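Changelog-linked ticket: BIS(adenosine)-5'-pentaphosphate example.
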Amino acid sequence: MPELNLILLGPPGSGKGTQGERLQEDFEYPYYATGDILRAAVKDGTEVGKAAKEFMDRGDLVPDEVIIGIIAERLQSGEADHGFILDGFPRTVPQAEALDAELLKLGRQLTAVILIDVDDDEIVNRLSGRRVCQEKGHVYHVEYSPPEKEGICDVDGSELYIRDDDKPEVVRHRLEQYHDKTSPLVDYYKKQGLLNTLDGADDPDRVSEKIRTLVSTLSLEEGR
Ligand code: AP5
């Protein structure tokens, strides 16, 4: 497979995790979701987890230096030499600049940024119904994508829970953080000619279909 270096960008609850999981199954590139990495660190009680927890509980962004280190380590490890899918990183302009610098050092560049666009009212609706599995973080929605058995993950049978940061007041703060600190990345990547915007309000299968078509086209172009 040709090297594809992809970013999934979008507000909280836009479907990055849902689509990232499907993309990973279809294209087999390493998938790095910084929210999942941080939640695992909190669960394991690591130093990074201890440092990140209070920011995450409030719906604030974790400091840039913590998160940049996490991604730089993975890019330098060699496991992403043939491409990667980033979900939830970068989330600030300094993070985007650090990623550009890291890729430049490795003689590489981004292939595309996929913006999943969803409005704030729909986000609040989605996050109030989200359920996540304890074991591997598989994502459900009580109405839009319910599990076969209520409260239980279809994939691994573990219990589903409600994320602490899905409380309505925290969701509103996360949205403010997105508009303030992350949305400038839309222009940042537009200027670089990397931005591909999709309507994330469509149903999940339709969004997946559009992403799959885009990634297949990029794959053909890179393979030439
Ligand atoms: P993170 O876990 O990355 O949270 P997020 O970006 O806010 O994104 P979410 O996981 O909430 O949503 P999603 O877009 O993945 O949507 P999902 O597919 O689950 O980060 C958590 C925290 O970690 C941050 O607040 C911050 O503190 C910290 N952090 C992480 N990265 C950081 C960074 N780079 N810098 C600093 N701090 C960082 O879908 C949501 C729901 O909608 C689900 O129920 C799903 O079933 C449903 N759904 C999905 N698609 C559709 C659809 N098309 N139609 C209807 N329902 C849908």
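Closing comment: Example verified and attached. The chain is about 50% helix and 15% strand. The radius of gyration is 17 Å.
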